[in-house]
Amino acid sequence: MKTDADAEFKIRLLRAAPTFRHAGEDDLTELARVGKVSAFPAGKTLQRLEQDGAQIFVLQSGVAAELLIEPGVEDAILVGLHGPGAMVGVVGAFAGKPAGEKIDEAGKASGRRIEALSNIQAFSAPTADVLRVTRRTPDLNLALLSLLSAQHGKLARLYARSTCQSLEVRLAAFFAEVAALIAPDDWNPTANLGKLSQSAVASMLGVSREHVNRTLAIWERSGIIFQNKKGEILVQNVRRLERLAETKPERAAGDKVEDWLWEIDTHLDRGLNQAAVHLALEAARRSPKDLRYMHRAVLATARMGAISEALALLDKHKLGRDLSDEELACLRPRLLRDLAFAEGKGAPDKKHLLVSAREYEKVFEKTGGFYPGVNAAAGYALAGDGEKSRTLAGAVAQILKKADTDGEPDYWRRTTLAECRLLEGEQAAAASLFGTAAGAEDATPGKKATTRKQLLRLAPSVGIERGWIDRVAPQAEVAFFCGPLARESNGGQSLPIDRMLADFGRFLEGRSIGWAYGALASGADIAIAERLLEEGVELNVYLPLAPHDFLKASVQVGGAAWRDRFISCMRRASSIEWNRRTPTPCNATYRLGAEIAMGKAIRHAGQLVTSAVGYFAAPDDRDASVSLSLANAEIWRVRGLEERVHRDKWPAPANGPAAARDDAALYFALVIESGARLPKSLASAGDLRFKDPSTELDILLFQKLESALGAAAPLIGEAQGGAWCAWLDAGVFSARMLQERAGDAVAQLITASCRPQTEPGKVYASEAFACAAALRDGAANFEYVGFAPTREKLDPCAMYLTTM
């Protein structure tokens, strides 16, 4: 019986592999007889295929790398990645054995070998026996040829990637492929890759360990990966990793530095300035002599509205002193112009505008470049000197005409010429040129955002309005959407979801949506997301719970069909994020998730200098006190944003939503790790407060965000920061938790449980707080500073510096 059971297990394992899916029982029985099942820990070499007694493996679980060491080459090069169901070692079985080959104890000789990248369970059989069985059966023979063809194609792609793409692209593709092989669900945005040696990865990709270390550090700071206390690499955002792997197919020949700049510039071009700023700072730290990194850091910081911080970086690193370096020399006048608009209470500060224009003009006189020239002209127009503005604009236009002799001009050349015509008073010509620029091959959302910002500032000086700008320099809008849950059917009657989709179609008419934020509950959410994906919109999913918890609580209650549609949307989404600190499905959890998603949409729209619009489907027999959709619409409307509300009769799911804990509530928190005297105003602040003895944190909870911000104001405003660390946060708490289990209460706040390593004497905010604050008109600013290292490596933790 034991033997039969063992054979049956081996046959089931073989049958799971595509190559043996249609194999006959006799063939599988024969293979089971000659083979065995073994387990291999991560990092273990399964075998060197050129040795006598070589075997072929069929993986049941885990990921294996197939490596090749050529004669005279020290490092092993990756020639294949294999996951569950894969047949490994086939290519090596048909390769000739090198004459006179010797393999020493360290395995330094030439040849192929298979290594376990994660813990592996596999069936193995001698190569001769596997080939004997497959060759005697036509179907198996064809399956083997098909497998060889597929592996040959993968090898060709690996070779093309290694010769044509930058290290960052190759590394992104490697991690994305491992994540896809190791993840239990292909729609899940995360994957635990386990411990991967940086030296081994560098060796497989043919690069230096330092380059791998640097790239992984940047990715950790931008939230793509996370390395926990065990040293395991957790991919946090598989979608972003996949997009990085597809971003830049070719690199500039021989220009290694450009390999390091492409990722930063990609984020800037897409308007993702939060990620760009920290990528640039990390790169500058590792390559301090290359000032282009710090240039990108200052530029991204300024685009986020943190002008004072950008000026501080500029002065600290002494950028822009050489007027012949146009890129660096234009930073200060750019920041001075931004400062003029940031400090102006109604009209911009003309003193800063004049100084900015003069500095741009000095760079123009030195370099003759069109960028400083047109900005000098725009600066004089903003300062009220129209004559000088027109003179400079005419000079820049002549430069562009003389230089534009070879091929079509790029986006910046076209928009610069358009801006010159606008400053010269030729609106019709400018409109035509701006329209042409919008269709340029290298036009990107980030570039369009810069153009729109410039035009909005110039509008009063040149006699144009917002409508004109939207027509000649269009930018797609950012949408937030939400709606009630729904069942699969409604007794054969016309579904309210059909009526909603008809209304949503009318909402989309004449409108360009480029990006959308929302959850994917069964019913309205998923139906709207599907329509947006059909329209080519980038879908950014934000869930109030972890994906599997959300699937159970808010999708499967609607029926199996909604589950399949949810997974389809998750596979096609551009990014997937969720609140990692609210494990309990309840009304307060969904409210916090919605506020974060709405805040993300608003912040993204601000970065792209475009409009945020909202679409809300809601029941017609409820009000905002019991309908989250209506509550969201009300918040959106109060913020002054465009919205559309569609109301109808929405039957609840058969089992009801898994929402239910009325004793839980959303609180906004001020968390203080104190080692010094604090302002007296904090002695009695907070609707609720408690101290966590294990971490020595004082946690003050407020029902209103504005109250938490007001309590933090004395800390934010301190001229000399104290020895304390302070964070603003948001979480969901039950009354029982607050009364009986302080440790569980701490776990609801990412800052309290992870304790970010932020600069003492300054107040930072979690992403949850910063996004919720974007829904309210307040005096505070939240400047993204990246994913901070934490004392307790539990979760990735994005941080925002709070200023007043």
What does this structure look like?
The relative contact order is 0.06. The strands form five sheets. The protein has a seven-stranded mixed β-sheet. It has a six-stranded parallel β-sheet with strand order 15-14-13-12-16-17, with helices on both faces. The protein is globular and about 90 Å long. The longest helix is centred in the N-terminal third of the chain and has 27 residues, at 138-164. The chain starts with a helix and ends with a strand. The protein is an alpha+beta fold and 804 residues long. 49% of the residues lie in helices and 17% in strands.
Secondary-structure map with pairings?
Blueprint: H1 2-15, H2 25-34, E1 36-40, E2 45-48, E3 55-61, E4 64-69, E5 77-82, E6 87-88, H3 90-94, E7 111-116, E8 120-126, H4 127-135, H5 138-164, H6 167-182, E9 191-194, H7 198-205, H8 209-221, E10 225-227, E11 233-235, H9 238-247, H10 256-269, H11 273-286, H12 291-303, H13 307-316, H14 326-329, H15 331-343, H16 350-367, H17 370-383, H18 386-403, H19 411-423, H20 427-438, H21 445-462, H22 466-472, E12 477-482, H23 496-508, E13 513-518, H24 524-534, E14 538-543, H25 547-555, H26 560-572, E15 575-578, H27 587-607, E16 612-619, H28 628-638, E17 642-648, E18 664-673, E19 688-692, E20 697-702, H29 705-716, E21 725-734, H30 735-740, H31 742-747, H32 750-754, E22 763-766, H33 767-773, E23 781-787, E24 798-803
Parallel strand pairs: 12-13, 12-16, 13-14, 14-15, 16-17, 21-22
Antiparallel strand pairs: 1-8, 2-7, 3-6, 3-8, 4-5, 4-7, 9-11, 10-11, 18-20, 18-21, 19-20, 22-24, 23-24
Helix pairs in contact: 1-2, 2-4, 6-9, 7-8, 8-11, 10-11, 10-12, 11-12, 12-13, 13-15, 15-16, 16-17, 17-18, 17-19, 18-19, 19-20, 19-21, 23-24, 24-26, 27-33
